[in-house]
Design goal:
By secondary structure, the chain is α/β, with parallel strands linked by helices. The chain has two domains: 82 residues, Multidrug-efflux Transporter Regulator, Chain: A, Domain 2; 231 residues, 3-Layer(aba) Sandwich (D-Maltodextrin-Binding Protein, domain 2), CATH 3.40.190.290. The protein has twelve helices and 14 strands. The strands form three sheets. Strands 4, 5, 6, 9, 10, 11, 12, 13 and 14 form a nine-stranded mixed beta sheet that branches. A hairpin with a 2-residue loop joins strand 2 and strand 3. Helix 1 packs across helix 2. The longest helix has 24 residues. The radius of gyration is 23 Å and the shape is globular. The termini are far apart. About 6% of the residues have low confidence.
């Protein structure tokens, strides 16, 4: 028997000509079967066909008068439910575990809402926020010209849009190296060494932008860095690659280094990890709920228990652009 084709949510979205967020909503409501491979969601082609045929069968029914009223009522209820999902659910972009905790608190808050998580990097998150595909995005984007975090990018990527930047945490960024740092990688210039191999992050992630900004500042040609084109999509994946000898060095936050065996962390700089949403949404109940949660003692204590964060400014408004 031929192996059944499996699809990613994006591939399903392309096939059905809908957004990826709609695919996640279908999965969350149980309308479309899915399963996880590690942390990745996968959907069998047979389940996509079953979903398509289910809607097609309903459309082809020729009911009698009573059945017609029932079907019309069900269609109306379904439409209302889908509209409520659209109105109530918040799409939050970002990869840190603190956002999973925030989503749980938000669902339980009296003024809260259901939330859908989109595990994309900082640049992609701002892009989705600007295009209305997400309501909140987290960023840790360093600007080399101003030596500042996030504000310049929010201004440029949300043109003519007033946005609120709320501080979550300060995190340490640095190099992941093998235990004992056998290649003695301690500064950005070391990445250009001929015997050094890098594992990079994907374009638009905070760590990738940090690297590119420093290379530009130092006048280093990325084409001379071994492994610059090799990309991985998370801090943990980068640290794991270094740990098993797939690269000499990677870039990420200190917390991930503490979760992978055989890794040392070389501190480079402190970053600001912050939450962004449109100012026009600030007074809406779910957004007020988020601010309330971030400033609550329970939320702070839970993050302190995880460790790896400087929470001294948690919940404070950094800027309104």
């Amino acid at each position: 028997m031929a192996e059944e084709q499996t699809l990613t949510p994006q591939e399903v979205a392309d096939l059905l000509k809908i957004t990826k967020n709609t695919v996640y909503q279908l999965i969350k409501r149980g309308d479309l079967n899915s399963y996880k491979v590690g942390k990745k969601i996968r959907i069998d082609m047979s389940d996509v066909e079953a979903y398509k045929n289910k809607d097609r069968n309903i459309a082809h029914v020729s009911p009698g008068p009573i059945q017609s009223q029932i079907v019309q009522g069900l269609v109306k209820d379904l439409g209302n439910y889908q509209e409520s999902i659209k109105e109530d659910a918040l799409v939050i972009c970002g990869q840190d575990i603190c956002l999973d905790i925030l989503s749980r608190y938000l669902q339980l808050h009296p003024q809260g809402a259901r939330s859908l998580r989109s595990y994309v990097g900082s640049y992609a998150g701002l892009y989705e926020l600007y295009n209305g595909n997400a309501q909140m995005a987290t960023v840790h984007l360093w600007d080399g010209e101003t030596d500042s975090y996030n504000i310049p990018y929010v201004k440029y990527m949300l043109p003519a849009t007033s946005a609120v930047i709320v501080h979550l945490a300060k995190r340490n960024q640095g190099f992941y190296v093998k235990r004992g740092n056998p290649k003695n990688v301690t500064k950005w210039q070391d990445l250009a060494g001929k015997d050094i191999t890098l594992i990079n992050r994907e374009k638009g992630s905070g760590s990738r932008v940090l690297l590119d900004q420093h290379l530009k500042r130092l006048g280093l040609d990325k084409r001379n860095i071994n492994g610059y084109q090799r990309e991985s999509i998370s801090h943990l994946a980068v640290a794991s690659t270094v740990s098993r000898g797939g690269a000499d060095v990677g870039i990420g936050n200190e917390k991930a280094a503490q979760q992978v065996k055989g890794i040392d962390f070389v501190f480079l700089q402190e970053e600001r990890y912050e939450l962004v949403f449109k100012k026009e949404d600030m007074e809406k109940p779910p957004f007020q709920a988020v601010l309330s949660i971030l400033r609550s003692e329970d939320f702070r204590l839970e993050l302190e228990g995880i460790g790896g964060y400087d929470l001294s400014e948690l919940g404070s408004v950094t800027a309104i652009t």
